[in-house]
Amino acid sequence: MSAGASxxxxxxxxxxxxxxxxxxxxxxxxxxxxxxxxxxxxxxxLLALVALTLAKREPDVVVVQPDGxxxxxxxxxxGPELARFLADQKHQPSDLTMIRFTKDFxxxxxxxxxxxxxxxxxxxxxxTAGPLRDRLAQQAxxxxxxxxxxxxxxxxxxxxxxxxxxxxxxxxxxxxxxxSRKKFSLxxxxxxxxxDRLVHDIVERVxxxxxxxxxxxxxxxxxxxxxxxxxxTPQPSSTTDHR
Length: 243
Known about the structure:
By secondary structure, the protein is α+β, with helices and mostly antiparallel strands.
């Protein structure tokens, strides 16, 4: 009778305590889940760091073609030798690049054609630094420069007679270009062309290369002085930045 009365107590204690093997299995299962969660967390952190590094990584692979034009190349496409070389040179555009960049800017900004000025003028502004771009855009708007050039019905032939690198530092270049222009009338092709000659002093700043600025240069300041009789076509009146 006493043995029967104590049986429920022993069963209940066995149920509450549980076999050690069961608790060990639960503990192992819980530890395994903890390691999985920890591993997932580590993977997420590593992926975030990689994404952040890729986002901040500065593109530094640019191929300069024989004519001086720069072409942006993705890092994954370039070989290790090219990538290492350009990593050393990425902030120092070559003289060939500087010449090509300067001629492109002069062509876009001063080689005015009435039929294309709406496209070429914004493209010229895109090559300039922010403050200069704002000044030129404001000046052009105030003087209705684009409208005047469109009404003038002219076509310009531009010749760069001389282009000299006056001074160069690690971040700035002073370039002087002598340019002659012939302006032909679109309304009267038989009319003799007008001619002028200008000397442009241009300060260019070295900037990080990117897909939008593959040359690694922008126009920081631009001044021009006429060395021949000015043509009768509209010209900006600014004393600092003009064409």
